[in-house]
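Deliverable D4.2, example record:
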Amino acid sequence: MTSEEQRPPLILWLAGVGWDEVRGTDSRLVEELSATATVLWCDPPSRGWTVPLAEMARPFDAVAPNVLRIRVPALPWSTRYGVRVVTAAQTRAAVRRALQALDAVPDLQVVASPIQRFVPGVGGTKVYYQTDDWLGGASLMRLSPSFVSRNIRANCWEADVVGAVTEVLLHEVMGAHAPVRPETRLQVLANGCYEIAPEAGPSERDPVAGLVGQLNERLDLDVLDALAEAQVPLRVLGPRTEKDPAYGRRLDTVLSAPSVEYLGPAPADAVPGHLARLGVGLTPYDLSPFNRASFPLKSLEYLAGGLAVVSTDLPAVAWLGTDLISVARSPEEFAVRTRHAIATRGTDGAETERRAFAAGHTWARRADDLLDLTVVRGSSRHG
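Output generated by the structure prediction step:
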């Protein structure tokens, strides 16, 4: 076997968020891909701040095992009309510089961003991967919808594979908006979870429901109000990231209810311990078009922790195809199902089944799916 055949695949990942920002689909999947590949992660062009000169002089930095980050300095208002041309040129130049330093060409080029485009002339199977409804959320990201739309259409047309985290996003959003070539493959590449080992000894779950994650406008406050009115014990962990003042005031009322215990943000390494104490995990997302196209991370995370789950009727839940998630179709039904799950916690013998189901949807499995889909393989992950 030649040295070229032995080298791990090289993946160029044009990311939607910076490596140091909130950990989401991008970084979690890349961490798993790095088990069998080298990943060249390209941050979005920096907006409103200057990369230090010492860092600009380096083509990339090692930020994790087998993950090299490219940082792209950009002019202020880098996504505005007129400046975008300069921004795109800076990105292309930074990527080519990094590849030249590695003396390599990518086997796989992934665009997972509403503002990035495939880099021409560098090679690699092209995968366009949409992790959220970027067109629907353009205004929230302070991006021009027409700019995002043009990027989606161009990337979908160039891609060898078009993937999205949900069927809704893949077919109803992108499928209707962006034409693809006849030979392009469409594929659901859903979010995943990490396996969580059960704690030693018998499970001692508190008689309380849990809501873990960011608290913002994606949550259905009618559901949370119904839980508070029914006096369902609720423990909430996560940062508040809402932007609408009126929503924030309603959220204040919910979090100050006598039946609600708000613990604030929790470090990632503390979450498994919290999950081990909860009686049921909740995914109370509203049914906005943005949420219908999303794949909540928390539902699989709850299952990985052995928890029963109650969720609103999201398409992502239907795609998972399991009765381990109890679906409620009204705020009142949500409260009833949550109370029942608390009352029966630890008595249904399903914790092992929940963990086994989640084990089939880990980030490692998602990484394998992506590599298998694009026929890009290094040495065996498990060998």
